[in-house]
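haha ok so turns out i had the wrong file open the whole time. this is the CORRECT one, sorry everyone. sequence first:
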Amino acid sequence: MRFLRWLLLTAFLLTAPGGRLLRAQDAMINPEVGRVNLRAAPSLEASILETLPGGTSLTVMRLSPGGGWLYVMTDRGAVGWVYRELTTFIREDAAVLLDGRVRLEPTVIERVEALLALGRTLGRRSDAFAKVGDSLTVADHYLKPVAEGFARLADYGYLESALAGFSGDSFARRSLAAGVGWTSYSVLTASYADSETCREDEPPLLCEYRLMQPALALILLGSNDVGVLDPGEYAHNMRRIIDLTTARGIVPVLSTIPLRVGFEERVDAFNQIVRGLAAEYHLPLMETYAALWLLPGYGLDEDGVHPNAPPRGFAGSVDFRAGNLYYGHVARNLTTLQMLAALWELMDDA
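then structure:
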């Protein structure tokens, strides 16, 4: 089965620039097949997120290689993968070409544009994003190689707009809102802040926002939470992070967390919380879990927690040529840059 995942990934990565996208509400669960599983990745091995009844309307975000699976959003805001043969298309002309770009739903675009407008009145930097997270975000392999000029875009040339648009310090900066071993509680707690840089009683999250004045915040938290917090505490903390971020005219860009070996069910539960919050608040969501799930070894290092690095290490982590796409850091960087490119397009149009 692991070899099958590898083959599926190979097809996914090599064909993503020539994939397909479907227009919103042009598909539904076939009423004649009964209930259909919504899965976390395009495979029968993937976890079941929920079960959809026949007739459920679907917004189709993209197709898997060969079109066998659909990445969808339901009319209630749930997102995941469904098997295409169990769906029905409403219009024959639904399909249009996609070159691997992220598609943002109209409600997300509206929310993002409103937050960007608020941010401009508050003096936020349109060329800056902050990074909020744990050791997965602290890692030198995450985005920092972009600032060193190592990016090799290959078939993803459209990412150049994000590389050129956002400042180098956004990619290179060691965020004060990210720390090794941190949880969602940590970024909200002043005792975790850098005492030499942050103000008294200022939590790391707000310290980083004050110093960076970013338009966006890339938020991935939960890999440590799954071992120490219950889902209710995690949801409370994440909601607080979102509220503090949006109140300052900063767009929270949420991310699901990768698989963590030994905590598979907890990861599924916490990712459902992230997906639910993204839907509730109409926020951009990066599906990091799905991006790494199909990789050999789930894209993880030997510790079963952190993404693994490609053969060329730091420099290779932003090399998106076909033969280098099978590593966790590469997949996460690509997923992040695809989202940044989509958001930069909105910012550039403003």
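The first strand starts at residue 20 and ends at 22.
again sry for the mixup
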